[in-house]
Amino acid sequence: MTIGAVVVVGIGSVEAWHVTRPLPAPASQSSLTSVKVPGGPPVLPWPSKGQGAVQVPALGFAANSNGTTPVPIASLTKLVTAVVILRDHPVPADASGPSITMTASDVAEYDKDANNDESVTAVAVGEVLTERQLLEGLLARSANNIAFTLAVWDAGSEAVFVVKMNALAASLGMTSSHYVDASGFDQHSVSSAVDCLKVAAAAMAIPTFAEVVAKSSVTLPLVGTLPNLVTEIGSNGVVGIKSGYTSQAGGCMVLAGERVIAGRPVLVLAVVIGQPVPPPIVPPTTTTTTTTVPTVPMGATPPPATSPPTTSPLPTASPPTTTPVQDLTVPDPERFTRPAAESLLSAAEGAVVPALLSAPGKVVGTATSTWGGIHHEVAVDTAGPAMVLAWPGQTVVATHTLSVPPGGRSGERVGTVSYVLGTQLELVPLRLSETLPEPPLWWRLIHR
Question: Which of 64, 263, 298, 419 is the least crowded, having the fewest Cβ atoms under 10 Å away?
Fold first, then answer.
């Protein structure tokens, strides 16, 4: 090959390189920002006494009234008991779990609790109950003796089980809670409305727990079919979960409701604790009437026989009772608790709104290639819709990736936008609305 030929080949190779060399990546810019849901927080019907709280787990939303002071919560304590049991001994959905044989110790606990006027479910020595049946007795019937049975079965003793309960509370961030028994009958087992919803949300995320508390009645071998003490279950979308009452705690109730909003189901939780209760029934008293016969002085004429005798009724007095006030019968102790919990749940459900974040073809940025002294700009838009359920005033966090290749074609995917609120995640592809212009061959040849 001659020198001239080598030079021609070399020049040709250089020109070919100019034509085929990669172009610089186009500049990209996004206008995507986090989205604030329109509207302000709605006014909720908080209870005038005690504490209230609402939570919508999927939204990452929670609100409360009257602080987080630890107070007795009665049988709402059993929510923690159930979660510890199900985490230690998971039961698949629709399964029964292991069988547990009742012992003399279980019957003795039943007798003790029954004599103490506690909430109980009868058991017999040798009776075999599955874990699910025990959970039904614990949650639907709020049996204190079943709480004891489960605690001993799980940990060997109630004292050791209580340590697990407090460890669970700490892991869930329940800073206002401390437990000393598995049932909540002891007034030193305390919590707050906010903490009650933290464990309620964790419990409702366990399918077996959600199945048990959604039952309007339960059937156990010895006692037969009995109604769930939470009478609201099955009406107005209520799917659980627990009530409680002691004279120290007052009325307590957690309700869970499921609503479908814009085609999506959402779970809403509401709790009220420390609610007033009706006055106890005081034993009836009797009124004593005494007839006084007038005396007649010596020698005096007695009154005519037809004259009515003079009477002097003694004042009616209520004899003192030896029964402590807290042990007197309270008719329907949840009378004031139920409407407070139901109205709070209904208002919280009604406050959840669909928030439209994106629609197909919404321009959210640009891609720009520069050559020939001119900026060649193409819009970047969204390839699909995006919607989340939200509480008015919440902020939906938007993040994105955007990388536009040289010569990108119309409709080509160039990135993704992620919208996050609570546990909700919406991913929307980003695309070029048009083909990005490329420099022609002559321009490539003359521009080094």
Answer: 298
